[in-house]
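Quick one:
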Amino acid sequence: MRRILVAIALGSAMLVAGCSGAQVDSIPFDFSYETDSGTNSSAKIGSDPVITYGNISFSGKGTLGTAPVDVALQAHVLFTDGTGPSGGYLTVTDAAGDELLLQLVSEATAKGSGAVVEGDFTVVTGTGHWAGVTGNGNGVGERGEALGAPVTWHVDLTLE
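Output:
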C-alpha cells in the first residue's frame, strides 16, 4: 500500500510540474566589461600586503544566448594582493531595452598580474519580456592584467 501511495504522489507531482507552464532553459551568457573611468571609489592601503577595497563601476558587451546585450556592473571589492571577495549587481540590457538584474557573489584569485573570478549569479528582477523571470547560474571570469583591465566571463544561466 505504501509503494502505491508513493507512486501516486510522485506521478501527481510530475503531472503538476509538467502542467505548470514553467520552462527551464540553460542559456550561455558570455560578456566582457572594463572599468568605467571616473566613477569609482576604490582605494588601496598598505604595501605588504596591498589591500584594495571599495566600489567599482564596469560596463561592456556580450551575448545572452545568441542575442547581443549591454552589461553594467556596480561592484564592491575587498582584495588582499589581488585575492578576495567581490560582488555586486549586474544589469543586462537587450536590444529591445528590456533589462535583467542579476546579483553577483564572487571570489577573485590573483593569477600573475591578473585574476580568475568565480561567481554565482541570481536573478533579482526584470523588465519587459524579462518580467517575472527567475533563475541563477555560475561562471568564471578572467582578467589578464591589473584591476581595472577588461574581465571576460562565461556564465551558464538557468532561467524560468
